[in-house]
């Protein structure tokens, strides 16, 4: 029965290819976007990585997709398939998690686990233990659950033609998001590791605080901070205290870094740190793993932001992506134009803003941001040795641009 429901869900989501996307283009937030590196090379590296860890990435989603609870919720997606609700986009990305559009959090956690685990015997290679596999899965589940919740629409009565459908889609999104988060927390509790539970709880705190960082419009879409002409770097610390938000808004590099960490970078970092913790390594190695995860998330986000502005496709982009923040800092008139529509960003001319961004030095600055974080991530990766798993992690960043 569950398997038949998943097949039905696939057919349901497939229909969304025929749905108009205009009304949901601006509902995507900063870290919703998926990276599209060169398909052939990226897919090859992903498959090689899966062979190394002996665990296909698709299995992470498959386990909870085949549950009876999720199958029941999937049935209700039929009622919203004709809508433009962001829930359908999220469902599609979960079910069709192709190798060419994946930020491979779980896979990297497994690769790092294999690199740091002691060998079972002198003649046996390092293996990923069951606790680390569960950690990789629950990290992906928390990330997906948060994405589903973040896609909720503010739908005042009278302003939407399909008010009842959109309202129903919101309810399903809440149920699915809650199910994923509760299931992930149940998996975390069953690992019976208090230190790991604390690490993941700090990441959940960061995700929650990120929803209240900076100004937002009526649909909860983030607005860039007022430019302060500051280009300072944001220093990432491995302690578990809340992020320092002092003098961050308006400083493009600091604001972009903190938004990326709030949007999931912290969770990925704690997932990497937890994998090293479960391997029995010391505090120093755990801190390095956290910083490795954070900088990898920054690398992927910078690559994603760049692709929205350097490809011919008319892809949607966030107003708090790196190119926009750099452009706003260089040309305050762009900020003034955005501010005119701060109550509802759907009325903003995104094509005009994109043209203004491309006239500035923002793309080159974003490339430098990518390069800087890529080098830092590689440096932290090298601290875990020169094994096949670590070399594969580094290759996952080298193929992005």
From TrEMBL:
State the InterPro entries in the record: Isoprenoid_synthase_dom_sf (IPR008949)
Name a biological process GO annotation: isoprenoid biosynthetic process
Tell me the GO molecular function terms.
Answer: prenyltransferase activity
> What's the domain of life for this entry?
Eukaryota
Q: Name one GO cellular component term.
A: transferase complex
The record's SUPFAM superfamilies line, in alphabetical order, gives: Terpenoid synthases (SSF48576)
- Its recorded name reads Decaprenyl-diphosphate synthase subunit 2
- Species name: Papilio xuthus
Q: What taxonomic lineage is listed for the species of origin?
A: Eukaryota, Metazoa, Ecdysozoa, Arthropoda, Hexapoda
